[in-house]
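This part of the workshop introduces the protein records we will be handling. Getting from the letters to the tokens is the skill we practise here. The record below serves as our worked example for the rest of this section.

…
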Amino acid sequence: MNLELIGALTELEKERGISKDLLLEAIETAIISAYKKNYGANSSASARVELNDKTGEIHVYSRRVVVPEVEDDTVEISLDDARTLDANYSLDDIVEREVTPANFGRIAAQTAKQVVIQKIREAERSIVYNVYSNREGDVVNGTVQRADHRQVIVDLGDVEAVLPTSEQIPGEEYKHHMKLRFYINEVRQSSKGPQVFLSRTHPGLLRALFEFEVPEIQSGEVEIKAVAREAGNRSKIAVYSRDPNIDPVGACVGARGSRVQAVVAELGNERIDVVQWRSNLEEYVANALSPAKVLYAIIDEAGKVAHTVVPNDQLSLAIGKEGQNARLAARLTGWRIDIKSEEQAADLPDFLPKAADEPEEFVVEPGLEEHLEEQVPAEVEPAQQVEEVVSEEKAIKTEAKTKTKSKTKVKEVGAAPTVPEISEEDLASLTNVIKRKSWQERFGSVEVDNEVSTGKEKQDPEKSKKKKDRVITDLSQLDSIDFNFDDKK
């Protein structure tokens, strides 16, 4: 029978994780209680149980103290009586005597069984409490067992947890056998055992869900800096990337929003805004107010207030429904945010951007200017440069006009110098003069051949003449003197 008991203790240790030594202590306590109750021993009597964990043998020993005069024989023994048992006893020694009953009987066995069961339950509760007290702040999977108007009972596998009404998402229904994820909010030890309280509204649940869905957060490349949540309606998270090549917002949103949509589905279609965290507080506040566009923000360090200005048509968007967007942005940044439109900010000095500091005047040391003038040659004044450029342009224009007139027209004036003769080749190349007016401008609409001589190739005089005949259709308007021709030609 005793060997069967030891085997049962070994099985309990394997199945339920209860230490065998703890169970042995519980059995020893049960045997002492049964001995005192069923064999007339005083409750104040001291006894010791020895249980062999290999053979299963049980021995009970009474313990009494050696005193000069005995007042209570259940816990004391005289020195003479002790020396009759062993001559080596002295005062204040402990005298042990085996008092193992021959048969505990039915009552003794029932008492021992009850105590053992109670100790096993206490051991299980202690194990559960130690496990879940270290898991506060973790997210676990649970199955809804039953729900009422006060609370929801959730089965976590080895313990039943409680989801209070205050920690439930507004409007969310909890059906029987529904599997959800819960945040372990608190673990308490009570007379009934450990009590685990769960939450579905805690911001830590949102943070943990993104850690499950985004591998970059698990690896540490992307970090969630802050979370602000109004469960069931809207939430905001601020993310930061330690790797400049990784976009933190894009990593959390995922391809076509797959990652953020998985979190939204878990939280009952709760709207989530993912913004980028910035070390610059002005930029961080502007990002926190998204989707509204912030023109600029002014930080008041003394009052810990951020004065922000948005376009006139986005004031309601920045504030949000019942101030929800501004409220979440303030929680996310930890600063009080004051939002004004452009028209409102124009009349408030706290919302006007500070003017940039004027640059300091550069003071030239005495004597330094003269030294620089000696080292650096004087520059030409801009007015003088303009006059020189204008003079050069006038000279070029005059030269071009003179050259054109010498090639195209030479009029005989009384004492004018003799005009040099113009060859037929030069005459043929006159059509290349860029500044010469077209025949249409000078003589009206005429048909002009597009073939133009380059002036570099030599042409036959007859061909040149025919070409001129084709171009000039009405020669009656010209005089031979215009081209310095004699009458024969």
